[in-house]
Amino acid sequence: MRKFNKPLLALLIGSTLCSAAQAAAPGKPTIAWGNTKFAIVEVDQAATAYNNLVKVKNAADVSVSWNLWNGDAGTTAKILLNGKEAWSGPSTGSSGTANFKVNKGGRYQMQVALCNADGC
Question: Which of UniProt's keywords are assigned here (predicted)?
Answer without folding.
Answer: Signal
